[in-house]
UniProtKB/TrEMBL annotation:
Native source species: Florenciella parvula
Gene3D superfamilies named in the record: 2.120.10.10
Name this polypeptide is given: Glycosyl hydrolase
Highest classification ranks of the organism: Eukaryota, Sar, Stramenopiles, Ochrophyta, Dictyochophyceae
Amino acid sequence: QDLMTYMIYSKDPAGPWSEPELVPTGDFGSSDTNLAPIILSDGSLIGLGRPPYMWRATAWNDTSTYTVEELADTVLGEDPFLYIDPYDESILHGLSHAGGWDSRGGHVWSTDGGKTWKVHEDIASYGSLITYTDGTTGVLTRRERPHLIFDEKGMPLALTNGATLDPCTHPEYCPLDYCFTSLQKLNQE
């Protein structure tokens, strides 16, 4: 069963690890979900996958409690990253690689526990320009799999992406389909 999504877990990185459990996919089907879940303080789970699907569970480690919902609006594109607003725990945010083979990032948010999602389709959460530590800049033609790095209080410090440099934009033109991990500091006080 290629590309199915499985879950394993452990209380310690050294193990022991649980047996792999198949994560239910509902109507999504049998391909890679790109599931990006978070575990809430009550032990429940919410996760965004490839649009328009969202996962919920009353107990994150009990796959029998998982449900998959198809929503009108979730993230744009693929590779979602879900996080809780550091100023208001009732607000969820999702970042995604919003544009097929380009560098745009999408941002959605929910103020009702993920029942509905809002988006500004005309505003990118990140673009193609990256600033390096020496102050120089570069252009990235592909910037996918966004993740945030947080401080101990939950404030975002940096954005990471799988990235490719110009002119590599599509596997037909970049047969090795390589990428590197970029880390860019976010605006901070």
